[in-house]
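REQUEST ID: PR-0412
SUBMITTED BY: lab tech R.K.
PRIORITY: routine
TASK: structure prediction, single protein chain
INPUT:
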Amino acid sequence: MSPEFELAVQNVAGMRIARDLGAARVELAQALALGGLTPSRGTLESVLEEAEGSSTEVHVLVRPRAGDFQYDSDEIDVVARDVRRVLAAGARGVVVGCQDASGSLDTDGLARIMAAAGGASVTLHRVIDVTPAPLATLRTARELGVRRVLSSGGASCAFDGRDVLRALVTEADGAIEVMAGGGIDASVVAAIAASGVDAVHFSAKRAIPSAGSVRMGSASEGIGCHEVTDRETAEAIVAALRHSESVA
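STATUS: complete
OUTPUT:
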C-alpha cells in the first residue's frame, strides 16, 4: 500500500488544498523558510474552521524560535504552554522536538512536552536528523510515547537519506510511525515511498516575491519573498505517489 501523506501548510489556502487532495494531516506552521515556527492563534483558529467536516487532521508545529533545538528551561516552558493552547483550541496533535547540549534528544524536556500533550498525538520533528544517532533517537522517542517521527534520513533531502529511512522503519517495527520529509517532490516521492515509510511529508510551496526593496530583519536578503502552498505542485506529488501504488 502507498503511504499516507501530510502537507505542511501555513494558512487556510494550504489547508484547503490538503483537504481537497485527501491528506491525512496538515502540519500547520508559519515561517517555513526558517524551518517553521509556531503559528499565530488567529491562523490556527481559521485553519481549524476550514478543516471542520473533513478527514484531514490539523497537527501544529510548536517551535518557539529559529535556529537549533537546544532549548533552555524557559523555552521548554513556552513549548509546553503552546502545546496545551493549540490542543485546547482543537488541534489533533503537535509536532515538537528538543536536544540537550550533547546533541542527543533532550529526554527531560521532551517528557515535559509529552506531559503537556496529555495523550494527544505527538510527532517528533526533524530534530532526529541532527542527533548523533538517529536509531537511538527513534528508540527514545518510542519509549516516551511519541506517535511518529519525521525524518529525512539525516540528509538535506529524504531521497538521499533512503538507506537511513529504511533502517528507521526496521527499527520502528510498527511500534512507532516513520514519516519521510525533506525536499520531496513528484520526481522522488515514489522512490521514498518504496523505503517502506508509513507516510510522506511535503510542503509543495512556491515563493512569491515581495514588492518592496527595504530589508526587514537580519534574515532578509534583498527584496525577499513569502511562500505559499502551490496546488499544481501538490497535485503532481500526490499523483506520483498514487501511481507508485498502482504499479507496485
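NOTES: DSSP finds eight helices and ten strands in the chain.
REVIEWED BY: pending
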